[in-house]
Amino acid sequence: MDNQTRVTEFILLGLSSDPQLQILLFVVFLLIYLITLFGNLAILTAIRVDPHLHTPMYVFLSHLACIDIAFSSSTVPKMLENFMRKRKAISVHNCFAQVFFGLGLIMSEGLLLTVMAYDRYVAICHPLHYMVMMNKQVRIGLVFSALLTGFLYSLLNTLLLTTLHFCGPNVIHHFCCEPPQLFRLSCSSTFRNHMVIFILGSLLGAWALLITFGSYVRIISAVLRISSTEGKRKAFSTCSSHLTIVVMYYGTLFFSYLKPTSQDFLDQEMAPSIVYFIVTPMLNPIIYSLRNQEVKKALLTVIVRRLESENG
């Protein structure tokens, strides 16, 4: 093994090798990326300027917006750069960095969605104690725990990834670096890597999903006991946006990581990656903007103030 040439860079084949199609894809994904940045920054601005949104629910939403910006930015700029380059190379160190931030942010987002589900459970099932149970110290602790757990999980997997030997080939059939693709290129055993990423990821995912599911079972039970139709509608409306995002998050992850890893599935792997790296960060602020009246009002207020300041 030591006599073999070590790989110093990988080649990302991306979505297409057709130059004309690459230009079109560049425009499409640049537009999506700009919408992602604008949408999440708009959510952050609305929450910051509107005092009515200074509640735990929207504090968590602001952290979700920050994660979405970072998550999309961990892959899309390099993807856009490669659309315009003939040689689509990424160094091994940058590839590992992409894996580290990708794994850390996607796990942190899942855990933050769990925190948000618990927040909705407390708000609906224990409304009189909501501000006490979700005080500032608790909110900081929950967000910090989600981020710390996510990045510790990522750090462990990235460190294990650096122990692998890559001696060729170095071509990745993907637009970014992800563990499954790198495992295929390794010329050393990846059994330990597979076990850690699957078992630890499954345990964290199952724990998060169990809390989320349990929270919504209790929420639905509590809402069904509300006598007025308007009360039920308001209660469900506060959860519908979050529940939609949870379904998208777990659906794409399950498809991506629980399917077989044979060559027949290579092309299909990019579809869920596009969803959770690129599409979901764009859709999250749109879903909250369209399905949440308070966010709608806050965004309109921000727009009106901006127009008044420009015309004034």
Description:
This protein has 312 residues and is mainly alpha-helical. It has one domain: Up-down Bundle (Rhopdopsin 7-helix transmembrane proteins). 76% of the residues lie in helices and 3% in strands. It contains eleven helices and three strands; from the N terminus they run E-H-H-H-E-H-H-H-E-H-H-H-H-H. The protein has helices spanning 19-49, 56-73, 76-83, 92-125, 130-133, 136-162, 179-185, 191-224, 229-257, 266-291, 293-311; strands at 9-12, 89-91, 171-172. Strands 2-1-3 form a three-stranded mixed β-sheet. Helix 1 runs parallel beside helix 10. The radius of gyration is 21 Å and the shape is globular. The model has no long low-confidence stretch (mean pLDDT 86).
CATH architecture: Up-down Bundle
CATH level-four homologous superfamily name: Rhodopsin 7-helix transmembrane proteins
Count of DSSP H/I helices: 11
Strand neighbour order, sheet with most strands = 2-1-3
Q: Give the percentage of residues in beta strands.
A: under 5%
N to C succession of SSEs:
EHHHEHHHEHHHHH
CATH fold title: Rhopdopsin 7-helix transmembrane proteins
Rg is 21 Å
Q: Can you identify the CATH class?
A: Mainly Alpha
Overall pLDDT: 86
Record keyword descriptors for this entry:
globular; 3 strands; Rhopdopsin 7-helix transmembrane proteins; three-stranded mixed sheet; mainly alpha; 312 residues; 11 helices; single chain
